[in-house]
Amino acid sequence: MESILKQQMELSLKNTCVEFMFAYQQRNVERMLGFCHKDGVVHFTPLGESGKGLIHELGKNIWSALIDSFPDIDNTLDAAVAEDDETVRCQVVIRGTQVKDFAGIISNGKHFDSDHIFIFRLGADQLIRSITVTWDHSDFQKQLS
Questions:
Q1: How many domains, in total, are found in the chain?
Q2: CB of 37 within 8 A of CB of 123?
Q3: What gap in Å lies between CA 14 and CA 67, rounded to an integer?
């Protein structure tokens, strides 16, 4: 019985994260935010200290700017693994074609295809409390230059 409950909990955690990534694939930032606690934090690690903030502020702004600059942005969720009873690690490929300048990268109309790792931490309410996003920023810049 205990293992069944654990499996159900892992599935519930993963479902929230998969739904978040699906909303991202649909370019629906408001829906993405709906899976997140209002005080949740995000860290886009390649951006250092400037990549840390609240999901509903910094996350919303970055995802909105990405979608605006890469209107065909898409993602493929390769894996979602429950690492413990509050953490899910997602391996994601994100791709898109740049049509507007983004974060100091001048638009040359080029396409990127980049592996990302999203680490989600959820609360007992199944809302995302923390997201850490990692990718090879140098490669991202190189693909768009």
A1: 1
A2: yes
A3: 24
Global confidence as pTM: 0.92
Structural domain harbouring 6: 2-144
Mean pLDDT of the chain: 93
- What burial letters (b/e) apply to 3-40, b meaning 16+ CB within 10 Å? eeeeeeebeebbebbbebbebbbebebeebbebbbeeb
DSSP 10-70: HHHHHHHHHHHHHHHHTT-HHHHHHTEEEEEEEEEGGGGGGGEEEIIIIIHHHHHHHHHH-
Q: CATH number, domain at 109?
A: 3.10.450.50
The answer to whether residue 2 scores a pLDDT higher than 70 is no
CA distance 70 to 55: 20
pLDDT single digits (tens) 76-114 = 999 999 999 899 999 999 999 999 999 889 999 999 999
